[in-house]
Amino acid sequence: MTILPAITTIERLCADALVAAERQIEKRIAARLDPVACDGLDRLTTEMLPGAISRFIWLRRIEPGNNSAAANRLLDRLEFLRAMNLNDGLLAGVPPHRVARLRRQGERYFADGLRDLGADRRRAIMAVCVIEWATATADAVIETHDRIVGRTWRDAKQLHDARVVETRGATTATLNGFTALGQSLLEAHGDGASLEDAVARGAGWERLTSLVATAKTLTDTLGDDPLAYVDQGYHRFRRYAPRMLRCLDLKAAAVARPLLDAATAIATRGAVPAADDFLRPHSKWRRQLRAKGDDDARLREVAVMFHLRDALRSGDIWFDRSHRYGDLRHVLVPMAVAHAAKLAVPSDPHVWLADRKVRLADGLARLGRAARSGTIPKGSIEDGTLRIDRLTADAPDGIEDLMLDLYRRLPPVRITDLLLEVDTALGFTDAFTHLRTGVPCGDRIGLLNVLLAEGLNLGLRKMAEASNTTTIGNSPVSRAGTSKARRSTRRWPTWSRRKGRCRWPRCGVWVEPHRPMASSSPQHGRARR
């Protein structure tokens, strides 16, 4: 027989153990900092920038933009963070969830609050924030570059479409001129008259020469690709691209090595080499470069920026200390572990492909014999088309009674209580952060209220009607753009701690803390454990 203390005593001991573990981790991180790093971290909370903002708050404003000015602002932060020389070795042996917890604590504090903490705790939190913010800032720089490339392409597409619209009148006039000339030639041919005289009496040779020249120009304009206009964004890339390439330690797979060499040339020498081996053999960019001739330096540099965006997306080019654009091999299971796991598929892909080819050939042979004999199970071939009979449900008798009995055995639970329990175990609400500051939402009940309304397709208005603590203004409710997860590009509401509620932008919705509602009716899917 085991005698246990009271549950409150156990909870207090567990809480003390968690606090002791957290303090031990903070001391471990702080002990690895040298005096220079400690002085640099302490200055983050005391150094003030124009606008009465501390350096610490300035650094955590990590927001991707869509222009070169935003990219340069992010690069300013990235260069400052890299200059502090805090590497990942400070976090060696620290569990990832502890690192994430320290970062969240740093994002909740302001400079004066950090100064009130103990030295070890303050420096540990700030060291983790510097390392994690450097990674997040580098990812934001790449995302900004991605948006700039997309914006350049859209501008080129709009310019191309505008040129096509401008040529509509000239195209109509040219076609009318050729139509009149063709009718004159056909009439002369039918009468047996001289075609030269018909041309002279009709449009005239000078008019015909002008029509041909205009038709050639129109053909070139209408046949142009939007890529012919992307070099208009050259100066946009020039303002930040060399600096970005110098800040990021890019690495590439063998297939993207020529592209990385071209990017390195832009970063170091400021010019792209004349070789275009970073392009695919049948790429449209090659035709545009040939059309430019010797004056293709700008277009070649823009092509490198476009292909760099695609390579970062696909993982052919990566850089270390990145959450979104890191080496994909770190995500995959090592081959030694895969061999030890004894997977159901062979480790050699050629063996698996050979086996599948044998199975496919055997299946096609059996299908051919069944088609010739007209014995395809529940199917037939009519006029060269394979027709399969509709499958019917073949549920055994009593399956519905069994399902109802299983549901009766499960205890009912409020869906709001279930959300709170899952969030306590996983902490998924911390993934919903402020768009500009990255601070997690402080009102967990209000956040779960909104997630429940969206997840049940109930809407904020009906959620407010079902609650006596949630209010909505007179403005119309818009479902679009009302949530933002960590990697989403939608706008998250601005949380107001003073009022204890949040306001949805552009829709006038105020969501306040709300106690758990009753569980949903069985017709709408009752939540159960």
Automatic annotation (TrEMBL):
This protein's species is Sphingobium cloacae
The Tn3 transposase DDE domain covers 417-471
| BP GO terms, sorted | DNA transposition
Upper lineage: Bacteria, Pseudomonadati, Pseudomonadota, Alphaproteobacteria, Sphingomonadales
Q: Which residues form the signal peptide?
A: none
Q: Which domain of life is it from?
A: Bacteria
Please give one Pfam family short name.
Answer: DDE_Tnp_Tn3
The keyword S-adenosyl-L-methionine is assigned to this record: no
Protein's name in the database: DDE transposase
Keyword set, alphabetical order: Plasmid
Q: What molecular function terms (GO) are annotated for this protein? A: transposase activity
Q: Where is this region: Disordered?
A: 469-492
Q: Where is the composition biased (Polar residues)?
A: 469-481
